[in-house]
Structures are given as C-alpha cells and as structure tokens.
Amino acid sequence: MQENQQQRSGLGLLGYIWNEWISTFAILILLLLTLIVGTGEMIHGQLLRMGERLYGDPATGMQYSFLRAEPQKPSCDRHPNIDAQVQAQMKANKNDEFADFFGAASEQDVRASLLAAQQLCEEKYQFYDKAIAHLDKHPSLRTYRALETGFFGIFKFGVDNRTIFLLIMVFFAAITASLKIHHIGLRSPKSKIDFVVYSIAMVIGNVLLTLSTISQYHSLIQSGVAITHEALVVSWLWIGLFGILTLISVFQLFRIPKQAQPGGNIGLALLSVPLYAYMSILTGLAFTFFMDYPMGQGIYLGILVEFSGIFLNLALFIWAGMLLTQTRVMDLFLDILRPWNLAPETLTWLILLAAAIPTAYTGASGIFVIAAGAIIYKEVWNSGARRQYALAVSAMSGSLGVVVRPCLLVVLIAMLDSRHVTSDELFDHGFYVFWLTAFIFLGVSLLLADTKFRVNSPRVALPNMLRACIPVIPYIVITIVVLAFYKYALDTGMNEFTAPVILPLILIAIILFDKTRKEPKSVPVLAEHESLIKEHEKNSPFLREHGAQSSQYRRGFARSMHFATAETVGHIGALIILMALSASVGGLIERTEIVEYLPTHLGSITISLFFIAMLLALIGMCTDPFGAVILVAATIAPVAYENGIHPIHFWMIVLVAFELGYVTPPVALNHLLTRLSVGDEEVSAADKEAKEKYTSFYYRYERWLLPIMVLFPALMIVTFAPYLFKMFGWYS
Fold first, then answer.
1. Do 246 and 203 meet the contact criterion of CB atoms below 8 Å apart?
2. What is the pLDDT of residues 393-440, one digit of tens each?
3. Which of 104, 250, 295, 637 could form a disulfide with 216 if both were Cys (CB 3.0 to 4.6 A apart)?
4. Whole-model pTM?
C-alpha cells in the first residue's frame, strides 16, 4: 500500500507521509471535535438541568440560571433622600427654559417617579442579597458554575467556528484526494495519455477556481461593508486550497506515475477526467467569459458555508461508513442468512431491505455503496448469482434507504423548503415508497432469474441460523447501551438530527469490542456453496483479497481507526468538492434563466408530472444528490407548485427520480462509487465474462439495465399513482 501511494501521488515518501499521516491525523482531530461539539450541546443542556436540580430553590424563587455569573452589587442609592431629590429636580425644571415646552412635571409626579426608582433599586438590592446568601449557603455552586460555563465556552467556540472546521477539513481532504488521484470520474486513468489529459483538465479547472475565489475576495474587500474575521478566513482558505491544487496538478502533469500503461487514446482519456474538473471548466468559462461574472464560482462555493452543519454531518456519516467496514457487522448479518442457502434473488432482496437502514443512517446512497458495496458484491456473487447481477445490486444497495428516517438528504429538503414540507411528513410518505421499490425489485429479479427458487430445509437452516444469532447479541447490547446513555444521561434520543453524532460512537465502541475478543468461528456452509466460493476466489483477485478472513479483521483498534479515517479523507475530498461544484453548476443554470423558459402551466397535470419527473431524473444523471436538491428547491419546485403538484408528492418524485439518475448513464454516480468500492479490475472482469458467456443484450449489460428496470417503474408509479387515486376518488 505504501509503495502504491507513493507512486500515485508522485511525491514519493513525502506524499505517503501527507496522505497516510498528516491529513489522516488532521481529519481525525476535526471529526472528533465535531463529535464533541455535537455531543456538547446535549451535555451542556444536562449540566443546566442538573444545576437547576442541585442549586435551584423554588421556595425563594432562586434559579441556577440567575447565578451563572457572579451577582453584581447595584450602584444605585438604596436609601436616598426623596425630599431633597424632589426639590433638586423642581429647581432644575424651573431653570430649564424648555421644561414648559415638554410639559413641566408637577412636584407630585416627580416624587412618584423618584419613589418608583427607589423601589426598583430596592428590588435589585433584595435580589443581590438573596443571591449572595444563596451562594454562601451552597459553597460548591461556584465550582460547579466554573465547570458548566467553562464547558459552555468550549462548546460555543466549536459552534461559532463550525464553518472554519468544515473548510479546514475540506482543505486537507481535497489535497489528499488530488494526491491520491481519488476524484470521481467515469473511469480511472490508466495510460500515459489518460494521466496527461487528466492533469491538464485539473490544471485548467483549478486555475479557474483560484482566479474566481481571488475575484470574490477582492469583491468582498471593495464592497464597502464591514467584513467579519470569519469571512476573511473563509476566503483565504478557498484561495489557498485551489492554489495548492493547481500546483499539485502542474506537478502531476510532468510526473506521470510509473505504473501508467504506455499509449492510450484521447476518447478514453477524456472519460478519466474527474467530474468536478468538468464542472469547474464549464462554470468557470461561462461565468468569466460569457457572463462577466468572474467571482461566480467563488460565490456559489458559499453553499458549503451556508449549510456547514449539513456538510459536517455528511463528513461524520462518511466516517461512519468507513468505520462500518472495519467491523464484522455486515458479515455477521450475512451469517444469519447463509444457512438458508437462499437463491441469489431472494438473498439479494433481504440484503437490500437490511441495507436500507444503514443507508438512511449514513446520509445518502453513495456513502453506503462505498462502505458496503464490496461486501454485498462478494456475498451475492458467492450465492451463485451472475457477476453483472452482483454489480447491479451493489450499485442499488443504497437506493432504497434514501426515503427512510433519518436520511440526511430528506433533512436538507425540509430545511430548504420548510414553508411547504417537514421531515416527518416526508419520512411518513417515504415509508410507502420504500416498500413499493423493494417489491418491484423482487418481482423484476424473480422474473429475470436464470435459476430455480431454492431454500434449505428449516430443520437444517434454523439451528445454524440460531447459532449465527449468538455472536450478534454483543453488538446489539453495545448499541443499546450507547443509545441508553444518550437517552437517559443526556435526555437525547436518536433521530435525524442526532444520528450523525451518535452513530460514529456506536461504531467506535463496536470496533473496540471486535479488537478485544477472539476471532469467531465461521458459520458452516453447504459443500457446493463452499466449492463455488473457492472457485470464485481462484478466478478473482478481488475475492482473494476480500475473503472470509479479510485483512481488516486482523487489524488492531488503532490501525482500524487509522485505516477508516484515511479512507474517509479521500472520500470527503472527492464527494464534498463534487457537491460544491454541483452547486456552482446549479448557480450557472439559475443565472442563465433557463428555468424561466419552463411554462408555469403545462396545460395538463399528467404532462406536468411526466415532464418534471424526466427533468429530475436527467438532473440526477449528471450531478450529486445534495447539490441537485439545492438546485431543484430554488428552480423546479416553484414550477411544480404552480402546476398544482402537492409539495410532498413533488419531493417523493424528486427522491425516486434522483435514485434513477444515480444508476443511469452518462454519469451514474452509484455505479462509479461501486467501481471505487469493488475495483476497476473486478468490474472489467465482470464485463468481459458477460460478453463471453452470454449473447443476450440484457445479461451482457445487466449491471446497468436491472437498476433502471426497477427504478423507472417505481418513478412512474410514484409520479402518477397519487394523481390517479385522487382523480378516481380513492382518497382526498
């Protein structure tokens, strides 16, 4: 691994040290700080409640919140001479030539005013005396207050600097992704021409981003308005990041990796260019040369600042996904299913149902594909399925859970369109969409199955299944203990807002448990199944590397944490930069006012529904989910509402259409992430095997066609069924 990283970065040992240690350590610290800040709010709330229970006195009306700062003795005169003050005020009024103009107060009014001021002063003294007496009565209160306010100061610092944390995280992660050549593209560069074209595109894209952020910084300085320190730091970080990425790209242009294959062709080389470089070149040229808006890219990068909380949660979810790969959770779950020796289609359906939960808890489909795609591919193929089918399932493994609570994408939708929908409403309706898609997948899979339905006898399967459930019990207990701690100690349940903080802690606890216990015995499998696995492992370098005794299970706790965080760094850099540039593309579409040409009334609700569904699927084909949602909320949602589409119905269409787009060329983001998880060699081997073994068009391209055959009917049903039900009066 060390040698490979040195070659890919082109910086030798220096690149390895940066990629594997400096950036990994920095991101780990920032992720832990984000966890502390997220948990800190819950802890501080409990400290306030505990302070009230310990030091509050309902009998005297003294609350702990009154004593969080040392009481200040009032500066007013507690026992004034009212008569003297009245005479002094009357004398001052008499000598004031404007007193009559404002209506001179009578002696009685002046006395009443001074008596009211004396009463207010007396109340201040009474409160002060009572507070001091309360503090003297509870000597430990000052110590507790120092602890609580000190913790609040740390927590507040984290909240106030959340944006800076995110950008520093992106700074380190994007540099690492560039050094590792880890950015997301339609294919990885392999030949020398691939690397040259890749580097040229990256140089152009990063130069345009650097110039745009510099232009945006000058615009900020010359705006004439007060500029906050945070705004300046944000601008400097963006300029520094893209300046460094430009230098890295220039260096890589003249330092082709040693493992690059000779030759190549321009067509394949263009497919190797990262999506974010294409987006940067497109928006940079359009903003700078056609719109005279050079700061455009820099302005739209501000989407990360505006939704810094969402993107920090996304980083935590990515980390959780990588931590999941270091646990036995997925294998132990599959151990429960293996004794039944289910047919591939039935096994796959159960896997997808189970995968919906971690998909929802890791924020979006792509993260789960990265985390578990390789494990799912291995298990489905070893069950006797076609290689292409296993790849299709891996790409779809994160599709069903995006409508299930507490998916971060739905939370973002609720934030962007809070006037029309809530996250609870979307999750309630998403439950039905989830089961609809699940049963369509099962029907299509069984219809196209080339093997008969099979299942072991319960007499054979049940004992082994029950035996496989025993190793799962400790993981359930660990999860319950962590959730109970948050529920009862911090008065916080696990939901869409707290999941990004709680989930990584559960997985860290599970990894710690995994590394301190003995290696569990594997669940027995049928002889023919075992021979199939051995045959696959012999013909597949991927399966030899990811066999039953995978290397991640032999790592210690520290190495597992290091490995998971190192993988997280590259994925954060690739995904969040892609999302930022997707927002820039959305801004370009918005400024070109293309959406203004969309008719606000298409004449027919059915035409409106079909047109909008296809448009949303097209957007999903070309961009990432978070950037696409921001674009849709600003441009297409108002058009849909004008055409009489209910907001909840519209957003259900959006989610299913996006999932269709993520498995549909030309980009097919989930397929790209599957390839990232499984590896280029395995995908190429699967394509080659399909062409040699099958003559049917479907079986040759099954990994592309199966997800489309499932999600397109699901999209049509979600799009038109509510309207038809309402038209026929089946619901109001």
1. yes
2. 988 887 888 888 888 888 889 988 889 999 899 999 999 999 999 999
3. 295
4. 0.81
